[in-house]
Amino acid sequence: MINKRAVVIALLVASFAFLFKDVIAKLVSDWGSDDNYSHGFLVVPVAIYIAWSRRARLASFPVHASPMSLVIIVVSLLMLVVGMIGAELFLTRLALLGTLGGTIMFVWGGEHLKELRFPFLLFALAIPIPAIIFNQVTFPLQLLASRFGEYTIAACQIPVLREGNVITLATISLEVVEACSGIRSLVSLLTMALLWGYVTDSPIWLRWLLALSSVPIAIFANGIRVAGTGVAAHFIGSAAAEGFLHTFSGWLVFVVAGALLLGVYRVAGWCGRLVRTKQETPGLAAERVGPAPLRAQQRSQFMPRCLAVSACLLVVAAALGTLTRTEAVALHQPLRTLPLSVGPWQGRDSQPFDAKLVAALGVDDYVNRSYVAPGGPWVSFYVGYYRSQRQGQTMHSPLNCMPGAGWEAIGRGRVAVPVPPGRGAGSEAVEISKLVVQKGLDRQLVFYWYQAHGRIVASEYWGKVYTVVDAIRLNRSDGALVRVVVPISSREADAEYAAERAALEFVNRILPVLATHLDG
Question: What does pTM read for this prediction?
Answer without folding.
Answer: 0.66
